[in-house]
Amino acid sequence: MKRELSGPGIAYGGDYNPEQWPEEVWAEDMRLMREAGVTMVSVGIFSWALLEPKEGEYDFSLLDRVLGLLHANGIAADLATPTAAPPAWFFRVHPEALPVDKDGRGLSYGSRQTFCPSSPAYREAALRMAGEIARRYADHPALAMWHVHNEYGCHNAECYCDESAAAFRRWLRARYGDDLAALNDAWGTRFWSQWYYDWDEIIPPRPTGAVPNPTHQLDWRRFCSDELLSLYEAERQVLLEAAPAVPATTNFMVMYNFDALDYWRWAPKLDLVSNDHYLQSADPESEIDVALSGDLVRSLAGGPWLLMEHSTGAVNWQPVNRAKGPGELRRNALAHVARGADGIAYFQWRAAKAGAEQWHSAMLPHAGTDSRIWRDVVRLGADLKALAEVRGSVGTAEVAIVWDWNSRWAMELPSQPSAELRFQDLVRAWYEPLWRSGVAVDFVRPDADLSGYRLVLAPSLYLVDDAGARNLTAFAERGGTLAVGFHSGAVDENCHVRLGGYPGAFREALGVTTDELFPLLPGESVGLDGGGTGVLWSERVRLTGAEAVESYATGPLAGGPAVTRTSHGEGTTWYLATQPDPATLGGLLDRIRAEAGVEPVRATPEGVEAALRRGADADFLFVINHSDRDAEVAVPADATELLTGKPANGSVTVPAGDVAVVREPRGD
Tens digit of pLDDT for each residue in 609-626? Predict the structure, then answer.
């Protein structure tokens, strides 16, 4: 049973760490939170050392006062289990709980997440702490939600110690039905004399003299994700027993630089999906990543979600940490709302003066209230209050992009045809032209229900099982349009190559077959006969029913098909056997979606993002102007711009760098 977050409107706040400050500062915090419109804060995330100064001895006096103060000021608490940062005393008592890296180096405590996920001692201590918090605060009037742990797997997604090896073997026995022969078959251990005769012979994929077994590595990634999920589920159960009606979440990290967890497996376990998202300073169009991440999180959630962390300005952990530009704080936050977020929160409330994240921005910066960040924070609070009726509305899309963590992990293993392929980059390359055109997008698993879509895109699906492949091809058979990117369908769920020619699982549906691959070197490209170029990849395609839409004009495959199209059942399939340049890819996707009958959310000028949320009796159109020019967008005559409260009168003008949110009544 899913439990919902109580309270009206869009939640607003951030991580609140009052233990970092003298108690006399707290009153000012409350006053300024009210000024900014803060409605909920996360509390206690890294407070284990203060709450349990010695094993089994607890001191909740500080947390008691903080929660009382929040309640007195009308601010809800997203109360954390502080299990992401065990205290130093724990590791002195249980040094065996410290993690071991891939090279066999034992790591020390002194930061956060310095524990082995398979450690029995850690699990016992974490559940004990979660239980103490749950029983003490289950009925506290400030409690709105449980915040379990923090960013699972951010620093310790993998541990290679002997305890982890034993846990890995237990996981494998469960996966393969305690059948060692089945594991040997799945892993292909006849190759290089890797056959196992005893479960105890199996170890984590530690460094070895040559390329490790790919299925061994893939199962390891699956195990590591599941092992952390088991920790979440264990803590969640403790909280549920004490407070059955209180929702629980843990913050995902759906962002450009994190791939450790299979969030399709995690999302159903959460009452409310929440996410942390940070910009990449080197990305000149980070607004595209904001949108992609938001669409993916909304798809994981199956509806509204919560942005648990992002930054008001610079972070502290990239090589160069730059502040955000004018209006960027507001555009980022409202873009997340546009993509389904029903709450906006930051790390953190007050910028730290000491510690590892002292140079990370916050809602209340080092400069205090006489700062651009503070003024933007206050303005955003007013914006979110004006958007209260948006809460609970959902996004609608006719286009789905297939996203699969197993496929991502498998394709980026060593010993591939090309080490230049990156799943995130390939998916973003296809997502970007849709974003520029204002086309709404969902993300789906390969085995998802596709009946609500007109167009399904699989930019990079190297690994797919039989059920997923059948589901995708059946979508086209029933009248949908399916477009598939190169090197897709190549292997099954065990990383076994699908024999008979590439692209393996999709050959018949695509009407093509490939016998040899010609990946391109860094900086190398091939010409296409439509005038564009292809990079990263080429392959010798033979038509077995499809027609060539674009052919190679240069390179070793000149004259051969590069982009193909065919009918399949009642629908249409496309295959892209190279990575076209952005303009060519955009043109192809415009053609594909037009043939599929997919229209943009709203026609907008270049550099202006449009997204739509659908409520019970109205649509909410978000128009975000990332350009340096004012933009005018047509809207219904009876629409209202919510941030100003003014009637739109048939169009809305959005100044450069600004945002408009338009309520459009619906007659249905």
Answer: 999 999 999 999 999 999
